[in-house]
């Protein structure tokens, strides 16, 4: 598996974002324009070529999406979400001297590529939070399939914090991490629960639906 430096990974992600924002976005507009022309094509020849071009652009968009995924998350792409998370916990353990445990129920967890990337980054943010704020000795990441949902639990035995604010409907802490996890999870139809009290460790549960098989 690839061991990318942080700087390299950041650079890859930047390029992936640029390609997404500039190339895919524009291609999508081309498709919309073509689709509206298709509706009033003056001849069968127009219809044929416009239709073919439309299909081709759709293929280019899909190909580019795969490339972006490969580029921005090589680890995820090569290993899959579970193995990538496990490797992440190993790296964090080496770097921060906190004992990380990873558990997976080994059930199939079908997810779209972009959702896998999102979840991976969310878990990474939660683990970084543990290293920054928790003063923990142990931390654990668990992945579990529950009916049609995926539940990812990230917990630590550190100092904890007052999570009532974070759990409130309208909230925004001084940081951006938890806020953005909550927003992005919401956007894909999932949710986050935080269980934490001062002196009592922290447990964060991310829930999202799995793809129908
Ligand atoms: N595992 C944890 N243990 C103890 N406190 C935590 C933990 N996770 C979060 N917190 C508390 O919740 C606050 C909000 O976390 P959040 O990730 O939103 O912001 P941040 O980490 O401070 O900043 P940012 O993520 O924007 O770099 C933190 O500042 C910290 O006080
Ligand atoms: Mg944070």
Automatic annotation (TrEMBL):
<dbReference type="InterPro" id="IPR003594">
    <property type="entry name" value="HATPase_dom"/>
</dbReference>
<dbReference type="InterPro" id="IPR011712">
    <property type="entry name" value="Sig_transdc_His_kin_sub3_dim/P"/>
</dbReference>
<dbReference type="InterPro" id="IPR005467">
    <property type="entry name" value="His_kinase_dom"/>
</dbReference>
<keyword id="KW-0808">Transferase</keyword>
<dbReference type="InterPro" id="IPR050482">
    <property type="entry name" value="Sensor_HK_TwoCompSys"/>
</dbReference>
<dbReference type="Pfam" id="PF02518">
    <property type="entry name" value="HATPase_c"/>
</dbReference>
<dbReference type="Pfam" id="PF07730">
    <property type="entry name" value="HisKA_3"/>
</dbReference>
<keyword id="KW-0418">Kinase</keyword>
<protein>
    <recommendedName>
        <fullName>Histidine kinase domain-containing protein</fullName>
    </recommendedName>
</protein>
<dbReference type="GO" id="GO:0000155">
    <property type="term" value="F:phosphorelay sensor kinase activity"/>
</dbReference>
<feature type="domain" description="Histidine kinase">
    <location>
        <begin position="119"/>
        <end position="212"/>
    </location>
</feature>
<dbReference type="GO" id="GO:0046983">
    <property type="term" value="F:protein dimerization activity"/>
</dbReference>
<dbReference type="InterPro" id="IPR036890">
    <property type="entry name" value="HATPase_C_sf"/>
</dbReference>
<dbReference type="GO" id="GO:0016020">
    <property type="term" value="C:membrane"/>
</dbReference>
């Amino acid at each position: 598996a690839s061991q990318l430096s942080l700087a390299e990974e950041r650079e890859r992600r930047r390029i992936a974002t640029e390609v997404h924002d500039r190339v895919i976005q524009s291609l999508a507009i081309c498709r919309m324009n073509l689709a509206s022309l298709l509706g009033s094509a003056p001849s069968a020849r127009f219809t044929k070529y416009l239709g073919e071009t439309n299909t081709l652009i759709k293929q280019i968009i899909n190909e580019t999406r795969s490339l972006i995924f490969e580029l921005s998350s090589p680890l995820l792409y090569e290993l899959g979400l579970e193995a990538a998370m496990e490797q992440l916990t190993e790296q964090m353990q080496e770097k921060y001297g906190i004992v990380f445990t990873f558990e997976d129920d080994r059930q199939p967890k079908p997810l779209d590529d972009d959702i896998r990337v999102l979840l991976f980054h969310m878990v990474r943010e939660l683990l970084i939070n543990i290293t920054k704020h928790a003063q923990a000795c142990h931390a654990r990441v668990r992945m579990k399939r529950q009916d049609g949902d995926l539940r990812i639990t990230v917990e630590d035995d550190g100092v904890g914090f007052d999570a009532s604010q974070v759990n409130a409907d309208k909230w925004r802490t001084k940081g951006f991490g938890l806020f953005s996890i909550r927003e992005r999870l919401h956007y894909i139809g999932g949710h986050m629960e935080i269980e934490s009290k001062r002196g009592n460790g922290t447990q964060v549960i991310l829930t999202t639906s799995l793809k129908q098989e």
